[in-house]
Write a structure and sequence with these properties.
Blueprint (H helix, E strand, L loop, with lengths): L5 E5 L2 H4 L3 E5 L2 E5 L5 E5 L5 E5 L7 H13 L6 E4 L19 E5 L6 E3 L1 E4 L6 E4 L9 E4 L2 E2 L4 E4 L4 E4 L8 E5 L4 E5 L8 H5 L7 E4 L3
Parallel strand pairs: 1-6
Antiparallel strand pairs: 2-5, 3-4, 5-17, 6-16, 7-15, 8-14, 9-10, 11-12, 11-15, 13-14, 16-17
Length: about 210
């Protein structure tokens, strides 16, 4: 039997919203003889790490995670995960609008654009690729007007396809909810019922992947 390397199934939401974690950057720092530092970023994009164990509040939750873990074959298969702190195109707690994020500018020819979320402003801004938008949440606008049709979204890649190329110079914006593609970062979950009932929560690490 062939097992897919990525499943579009989402990690249980009830447990996801209790997890801890966030983005990790990797920076090489060399202190020069002058006292100044030379800093170099190893990778363009951050890698997010989470601990799903902190979201497990009961034996029923633990059973759900173990079932999900077995279905994914441990580290073998990636899956969707809802980051409790960062899962919308807008700021935390705000509603999605079709004008949240700029995803390109029309040139009269291009019909394919990729969803991104930008953090910060100006030259120092960081554009994060969004590859797992949530089905039915993507809203798109061209030249300041929301579109009700004339485009399709691939929810498995975060790609927007227009039926007709937006006009030259037209601003293309989008709003959406999204998941993070992750996998389990271990092949064994060790459970001790007595320890769990005494308040000891097992660590269940997840790590972001590029599917």
């Amino acid at each position: 039997m062939t097992i897919a390397s990525f499943s579009e199934e989402r990690f249980p939401l009830r447990i996801a919203f209790g997890t801890s974690g966030g983005p990790e950057r990797r920076t090489d720092i060399v202190r020069l003889s002058t006292g100044y530092e030379s800093r170099n970023q190893r990778q363009r994009h951050a890698t997010r790490h989470y601990d799903a164990g902190s979201g497990v509040k009961s034996l029923a939750d633990l059973a759900v995670v173990l079932d999900f873990f077995e279905a994914r074959r441990g580290q073998l298969t990636g899956f969707r995960f809802r980051d409790p702190f960062d899962h919308r195109s807008t700021r935390f707690g705000m509603a999605v609008t079709p004008f949240d994020q700029s995803i390109g500018t029309g040139d009269g020819t291009t019909t394919v654009f990729s969803l991104t979320k930008t953090y910060g402003e100006g030259e120092g801004a960081y554009a994060r690729p969004i590859e797992k938008p949530v089905a039915g949440t993507v809203r798109v606008a061209v030249a300041g007007t929301e579109m009700s049709d004339g485009f399709q979204v691939d929810e498995t890649t975060g790609t927007v396809f227009f039926d007709e190329a937006p006009l030259d110079g037209a601003a293309i914006t989008a709003g959406f909810e999204f998941d993070v593609p992750v996998r389990f970062d271990l092949d064994q979950i060790t459970v001790n019922l007595a320890a769990f009932e005494a308040g000891e929560i097992p660590s269940i690490p997840l790590v972001e992947i590029r599917p």
